[in-house]
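Before relying on records like the one below, remember that each one covers exactly one chain. Contacts with other chains, cofactors or solvent are not represented anywhere in the record.
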Amino acid sequence: MKKLTFLCVAVMVTAALIFSSENSFSQVYQLENPGFEEWDNNGEPTGWNSFPSANCTLGSALCGTAAQTRHEQSDDVRPGSTGSSCKIFSTSVSVVFTTITANGALTSGQMQITNASASNVNNCNKTITSSEEFNHRLNAKPDSIVFWAKVVNASDDSKACCHLYIHDNYDLKDPLAANENGYQSHIVGGVTSYDFANNGSMWQRHSTPIIYEGYSCNDPQFVLITFSTNKDAGGGSGGDALYIDDIEFIYNPIRYEFSETRCGSFTWDGETYTESGNYVKTYEGTPRDSIVTLHLTINNSVTNEITETADNSFTWNNQQYTTSGDYTQTFTATNGCDSIVTLHLTINTTGINENEIAGTNVYPNPAKDRINIEGAEIKSVSICDITGREIAEYKNNGENTMNISTEMLESGNYMVVIKTNDGKSTTQRIVITK
């Protein structure tokens, strides 16, 4: 008798595995007792069945022979493992004045012995959906099955086998030919026959994909799995043996890729990236992990500098400037990021000079405390800022020299405008440093 234990998890299930309320049950992703560590009092591994629990209809005499035990718990386990494995073995059976080979077999369902001929299709294994003793729940779609096995057959050409079918709420039989018409609509996927030979009677890891293509059902609820010492009913020899251990369903991760192009940086799942590249994150899930790849392109801001000199004013990007200085504007570059341009601008003020006065001298330059001016018949001197705005004007009454204090001026660039009695003028630049 088997004690059914479900693996319960709190995960998001894909749309393909959402069931109606009448068919839903806790999520089950692996077989029960896959390493054959647990055994029931009747001598069968928990969750598994063999000949002693078969449904035999041959009569008591024949059933006593047909249902003989052909399995045992073994401490011969695959490398790196401990505990026990399950050994199934074939026997030679005398039936109606002849001797046949009864293959050793183990199933998640129940054996049906209904005919004395070993090769009769009605001798099958069957999922009994109404009995927890003779079914294995599985409401997922694994990608492959992996198990360890050691084949010890009399002939190197004699191959053991594994059959597997995932199906809905239907009492499926293996071999499939034993089913009634219409059984195909109940199969989700399977392994029709995976055959494997002696391989030196050594433990070997076996892996085979589960095929879903060609089946129309998408409602996994049960799995019917069978191991046998020989792929052919009645094949092989008495004493052939198959050891089985550590059965596992493999669920490949779901892979997803996406691309992003950003300026400067990009934050993904709390982590900020500043360089272009391919970044991978793995999100653990049951039964499958999700592996997400980010293809990231980081574009950086573009900086540029220009230098311009203009008279009186300069217009840049619809904005007019009348003062020398450094100015910054931000544009959008072709890569979608900011393009930061710095303008180094010099404004020359014109219109102050009406004509050149020869022989005029302004010193020292740079000046600190005072400005000295020498020239013929100086009428007046004006001090202007760099934009041409007059700060102060000094009268001179036609003298040839002037001495002006810089006390009221701050450090910086200035224009000295000199006018003479004959109406001429000249402008000279001077720097004040304090």
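The helical segments are 60-66.
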